[in-house]
Amino acid sequence: MGRIIDGCNRNMVGHNVKKYRRLNKMSQQELADKLELMAIYVCRGSVSRIEDRSRTVTDIELYGIAKVLKISIQDLYDKENDFPQS
């Protein structure tokens, strides 16, 4: 079954993934490589699409991203990234 998300934003965390990745002085490729070491296969292009919010993120990917960036999963969420209410 495909994922169904209404609207153009596919995740709520992309902005903060990018922010914390940059704070860690890490390239998209480095993040992808570190995730692969955890058996979480996200290519550099997928990291880019997560950051621009055009790709969904699984719970396992969220877990790995938070671990690699040394933050909590909650740190990936903030009010700026909430979807507008209908």
- Unreliable stretches, pLDDT < 50, 5 or more residues? none
User: Kindly, what is the distance between the CA atoms of the first and last residues, rounded to a whole number of angstroms?
Assistant: 25 Å
Please report the number of helical segments.
4
User: Helical proportion?
Assistant: 40-55%
Secondary-structure element string = HHHH
Short description:
The chain is mainly alpha-helical. The chain is 45% helix and 0% strand. The protein is built from 4 helices and no strands.
What would you note in describing this structure?
The structure is a single chain. This protein is 45% helix and 0% strand. The protein has 86 residues and is mainly alpha-helical. Helix 2 (28-37) crosses helix 3 (44-51). The chain has helices at 14-23, 28-37, 44-51, 59-69. The chain is globular and about 35 Å long.
Keywords:
86 residues; mainly alpha; 0% strand
Ordered list of secondary-structure elements with their pairings:
Blueprint: H1 14-23, H2 28-37, H3 44-51, H4 59-69
